[in-house]
Write a structure and sequence with these properties.
16 strands; globular; HU Protein, Chain A; Coagulation Factor XIII, Chain A, domain 1; alpha+beta; five-stranded antiparallel sheet; 2 domains
Length: 237
């Protein structure tokens, strides 16, 4: 029996150059360090403490090696020091010319090829009638993809209209929790909803961390449509 193919969603949006488009991929799942440790321990048949110790040890080994100017070539990726900045003249002094060294990582062929023909990108475009969020902007902080309690947030997209009087429609702040999946943290208070543009506020306190701003809408003109969830990842500040 053939295994079911997983999918990663791709959103197509226009860029500043006319006639050109850019695809944004949404991972099928996002794992934090605790989830990585748990799955690694289960996969390798080792204890969670041992898995965390090994992960922390590897991280420190990589950072210390790169800080000493070494390049580490793993099978999946290379870690190396990289020079950033530019010299103002050919004979300029690097130390006095705003050059600096930073750590960098480059995927190698096994990692770049591991998803080929295994994951299928699903194109979600506005022309398909698929509800889409292009961006989330914290207007008070003037930063994209962040949220804060009491700040006015602006979402721009397509098919975002919903009926705020319905319990299963609206904008929620959600968080991934172990063994619980997505958990709703707070429901937004709507300020504006027009032409693919939403403005809203989360009045409840929000702890720092990664969240999803999710819009639940029927995406149609009648109540016969099933509720559709669309989301954008954000960070609480």
């Amino acid at each position: 029996m053939k295994a079911e193919r997983k999918e990663i969603e791709a959103t197509t949006r226009s860029t500043s150059s006319a006639g050109k488009f850019q695809a944004d991929l949404t991972p099928t799942d996002i794992l934090d360090e605790d989830a990585i440790v748990a799955q690694w321990a289960a996969s390798a048949a080792i204890g969670a403490i041992q898995a965390r110790t090994m992960l922390t040890s590897l991280e420190w080994f990589i950072m210390e090696s790169v800080a000493k100017g070494r390049q580490l070539n793993f099978r999946l990726a290379s870690f190396y020091p990289r020079l950033s900045g530019a010299l103002t003249t050919r004979d300029a002094d690097p130390d006095a010319d705003s050059l600096y060294v930073r750590g960098a990582v480059k995927a190698r062929r096994p990692l770049m090829e591991c998803a080929r023909n295994k994951l299928r990108a699903v194109n979600r475009t506005v022309s398909d009638g698929q509800p889409t969020i292009f961006s989330i902007l914290d207007r008070d902080a003037n930063k994209a993809s962040v949220v804060a309690a009491g700040h006015v947030l602006s979402a721009v997209g397509a098919g975002l209209a919903f009926d705020p009087s319905r319990d299963d429609e609206g904008v929620w702040l959600e968080r991934r929790a172990k063994k619980q999946g997505l958990v709703r943290v707070a429901r937004a208070r709507m300020l504006k909803m027009e032409n693919g543009h939403l403005e809203f506020v989360f009045d409840a306190p929000v702890a720092r961390g990664n969240y999803l701003v999710s819009v639940y809408t029927r995406g149609g003109k009648t109540t016969d449509y099933k509720t559709t969830r669309i989301c954008r990842q954000v960070k609480a500040i």
